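EI: anyone free to look at a 102-residue chain?
SC: sure, send it
EI:
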Amino acid sequence: MTQNLGKWIPVAETNPTALEANQDPYVLSRQIRHRLYHVVEEQNALDQRLLTLQERCQHFDTLIVQAIQKAVKDFSDATIKQSNYSVTVAQEINGKIDIDVC
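SC: here you go
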């Protein structure tokens, strides 16, 4: 369409009566402007949808990181408890062995 506009502007300047309605540079420029506005509006809507999606992904990523951090903390706590239990049992066994030896 923009090619048509460039093609018909010189004709309009030299012989405007030779143009048909669909060749009129004013009409062509209005059609181009209409399409351009439509494309810009569509791009803005897509940009907004992309921003919304990115915000949702960021929130989802935060939830995943928090879940992983909680799982690591729970595992660490369980490992510490097990370690403390093992140390206690070992100390009790050593205490019993020392008592039995004497």
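EI: The first helix runs from residue 2 to 14.
SC: 👍
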